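Chapter review: from sequence to fold.
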Amino acid sequence: MRRIAPAVLILALSSPAIAAPVAYDLQPDRSTVTYETDFGAQVISGHIPIASADLVLDLDRLANCTVTVVLNAAGADASFPFAAEAMKGKTVLDAGNFPTITFISGAVKAAGDGALISGALTIRGVTRKVTLDAAIFRQQGTQAGDRSHLTVRLTGKVKRSDFGATGFGQQVGDEVRIIITARIARHE
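The C-alpha cell string follows.
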C-alpha cells in the first residue's frame, strides 16, 4: 500500500475534472474495526462489525470530506470469550439497548502526511466530540494516480467512562484504542 500525502494530492489533483467530492462505497468484506484496552498486565482486543458507512472524499479540499460510520455493537467480539459478553452487557456497551456505535465527521483538515477528522462519536446513546488520525492509501495492485480503490485508516483513543461505559473498571482500562481500516471503491 502506498500512502497518499495531502500536499501531493493537492498538486496531483488540481485538474477541474477531479476537483469535486466523490462518493465511495465501503467494501465491507475487506474492512475492519479493531479495538484494544488494557486488562491488568494483558490486553483485550477484538473486532466490531461495520454495519454501514457513507464516505465522500474531496482530495483537493479536505474540508469537503464527510464520513459516517455505523458499527454493530451487538456483534462485537473479544480476545477473551467472557470479555465479549461482559463488553456487550448493560454496564459497558449495553448493546441490548444501544446496538450501534456511530461516528459522524465534522471537520477534516490536513495534518503532516495525513489528516485529522473531528466528529461526533455516539456510544450507549452518549455523544462526545473525538478526533481521529486519518491516512489514505491506494489499495495494493492499483496504478499511480488511480483513486478508484482506496484504503482509509482511522486511529484514535477514547475513554469509555466518557460514554458511561464504566463496568469492570477495576479490571479493565478506561482507554480504548481504535483502528478503523475502511477499504472503499469509487461509487459507480
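Two observations follow directly from the output. The chain has a mean pLDDT of 88. The chain has two helices and eleven strands.
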